[in-house]
Amino acid sequence: MQDPNEDTEWNDVLRKFGILPPKEEPKDEIEEMVLRLQKEAEVKPYERMSLEELKEAEDDFDEADRKAIEMYRQQRLQEWKCLQRRQKYGELREISGEQYVKEVTNAPEDVWVIIHLYRSSIPVCLLVNEHLSHLARKFPEAKFVKAAVNSCIQRYHDRCLPTILVYKSGEIKARFIGVAECGGAYLKVEELEWKLAEVGAIESDLEENPKKDIINMMTLSMQNISVHENMDTKSSDVLKPRIT
Known about the structure:
50% of the residues lie in helices and 12% in strands. The protein has helices at 9-16, 29-40, 51-56, 63-88, 100-105, 123-138, 149-152, 178-182, 189-198, 212-239; strands at residues 92-94, 112-118, 143-148, 163-168, 171-177. The protein has a five-stranded mixed beta sheet with strand order 1-3-2-4-5. By secondary structure, the chain is of the alpha/beta class. The protein contains ten helices and five strands; from the N terminus they run H-H-H-H-E-H-E-H-E-H-E-E-H-H-H.
């Protein structure tokens, strides 16, 4: 049997009189690719809908779309929760002692709360507030608050300031009391970020302790002192007169 798509004069005559169907034109590969990409890029109607609109239009979709809609709804719900949390936190807020229980102890169980007890007359407290304000914006899923220490605890010693307490589910999970524990008078924001990440309050992208080099230098210095002390001891033993 003759191929109707074969290029012959006879087939051309038959096509001219409508006896054979028109010859199928070979599809351009580039055109096919463009059409395929356009189809893949088509936005499903439910991807333009709000959560409320999705619920109302659920019956208009087939089973495959319903499964996709459910996945999409969960994704949008998580995005909405994240947005709500960002709008709710994302800043270092001032609270009073009267608000402590409500804002800190009774905070939602899945939220980490970092509270700084400070005194504005102490420079390092102001430095910690500045760093916590930066971290609050960087980690909006955590709740950062500060409170003037006099509004929470009467006659609190200055040597215990700054005081940073980390709460989760109403319990203190970590505490940093005094300048040394908080990181020193020249504390850097990365160092404070590392401290909070170590206790689990935030998920930092820092790969190592920013103070690692300083700690290594201090360790090396202590080792050198120890070596020198041992050498001095041995030297003094050698110089001691022997009594027979």
